[in-house]
Specification:
Layout: E1 2-6, E2 9-12, H1 22-37, E3 54-68, E4 71-84, E5 89-101, H2 107-133
Parallel strand pairs: 1-3
Antiparallel strand pairs: 1-2, 3-4, 4-5
């Protein structure tokens, strides 16, 4: 995990490791959240060799713990792009940014704050996807389209 104690000088915690890279952990959280939304017929990760209607690309732009005196905060930025594969067009794109205060100036407090920021992102992502795909629902239909 990277952190800042002085402006423009990034350092790294040397004795703390994540279970996986933040990008992979967030991708797993996105997949789990989308599976639970009942917005799509199926949610697949990677590059499956099946026909799909949409593709969601995500990129962790930054995940940084910044220190100031005896406190710190987490800065998280994730860019997502939703692609309509049948039309080969970009439906929507957005960069989500979050600042989350930590309960202390240490790695554990940073991880807890990063988890809170990630949860806020997942809630916002759900709304973003609902908005972005609303035009694909048939008029008068009460359930999401089964082919999504």
């Amino acid at each position: 995990m990277a952190y800042l104690q002085t402006p423009r000088h990034i350092e790294y915690f040397s004795y703390h490791e994540w279970i996986d890279t933040p990008a992979k952990m967030i991708a797993s959280m996105i997949e789990s959240r989308l599976d639970g939304l009942d917005m799509f017929a199926a949610v697949l990760s990677g590059s499956p060799d099946v026909r799909a209607d949409f593709r969601l690309d995500s990129e962790v732009k930054s995940l940084l713990q910044e220190f100031d005196a005896n406190t710190s905060r987490i800065d998280l930025a994730i860019k997502v792009s939703l692609v309509d594969l049948s039309r080969r067009s970009l439906l929507n794109s957005k960069t989500f940014t979050y600042e989350e205060a930590t309960a202390g100036a240490n790695p554990e407090a940073g991880v807890a704050a990063a988890n809170r920021a990630a949860e806020r992102f997942l809630v916002d992502l759900s709304g973003f996807l609902a908005e972005s795909t609303a035009a694909f629902e048939c008029p008068g239909e009460t359930d999401p389209a089964p082919n999504r």
